[in-house]
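User: Predict the full complex structure for these chains.
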Amino acid sequence: MVWRWGLFLYMSAVTVAAFLYAPLANKLFEQTRIIYWHIPVAWVTVVAFLVCGVESVRYLRSRDLRHDAGAASAASLGLLFCALATVTGAIFSKGMWGAYWNWDPRQTSIFFLLLIYAAYGTLRAAVEEPARRARLSAVYGLFAAAVTPLLIFVVPRLFFTLHPDPIVNAGGKLEMHPRMFQVFMASLVGFTVLFFWVYSLEVRIRLAALRADGAWTGTGKDRAA
Amino acid sequence: MRTAWAVFAKDVRTELRARYALSATFVFALATLAIVSYAVGPFGGRAELLAAFLWTVLLFAASAGLAQAFVREMERRTWLTLRLVASPGAILLGKWGVNLALLLATEAVVVPMFLVLFGVSFASLPAFLAVLVLASVGLSAAITLVSALLAQARSHGALVPALAFPLIVPVLMAAVTGTKRALVEPGAAVTELRILAAYAGILVALGIVLAEFVMED
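Assistant: Here is the predicted structure of the two-chain assembly.
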């Protein structure tokens, strides 16, 4: 409870600081402010998909549905944050480049991610038996996790993009006003904590549902394939 | 590797007897090609449009014809026997080889027809052929993997394209830009070829590693 209110106050403070404390970046005008949401949200998207991949591997190794619940929760939250990153990116794109969507390599790769994780959800919906659903979606999740880095980090570097350099840019330099950087990092931490909090809730909900169906006992001995 | 070859040889033989998947792929490609060609006429012109048409035709054909590899084993009740005699990795490799061969065979007929119907000439034919082959490798790998996954789900038929599509999109994007460049630029489309090769490599390697989990029961 304290945690939740703490997070609420913290995120509110970051929001206020983004408007009042941080200066504007060169040539980005008021569009600067969106980086305190867009980049953390995109970052959480990547973290979520990473968690999904790791939990998929752990499921295939342990056959404990706890990890399947983890992968499923991470994927569904990842899809949500991916949608948010797409929308905030499109708003930035409209402000800076005049169009919401122009198939910039960054936009293209985030579109793939949306598709992949929507398909992951479709696969989960298509298989009813929990252990089989867990196994098949773990495999698909791993495919998704394997192509994600290619889409996020490799393809946008090979083609011309209008997108501002990512934080860790080619030169490894950080070109940001110290105050901007403080707010940005604070926002990054806030969104990450937010993600893991909602994630833990979602895992508990999924496990409760499995337990109610008698598919999971929490003893790690539910090995029915 | 020898089992994979045996699976491949068996499937090619049954395919040559019935020509089920081959005719499905081929007729689908032909129908799409006819529609596109009818709508556009012989002077389709712009390179990016031609590239998009070609890959639309091939994508349709591939998702119609290649999705059946595993389901047919289930339908004929030969799946368990196959699993007894061959390892999951070998089955996957064999099936993927068949699908790749099917796709290349279809392309061998459809692509020349496409070139004739649209009056296309390439600035760099070798670059185009390289893009075509590498993209076919990626395309068939993605569809084979997904159809192996979905052979165990109910209502697999409609789902194969839906699940394969996200894995295919990177292949198609690179294939389309690669084809476009081969149409207008003399040099090799190196960037696209590298993406296609890397992507196909990831899919196939991961597929072999994960095949065991896919085919567990």
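Chain B touches chain A through 30 residues (CB under 8 Å).
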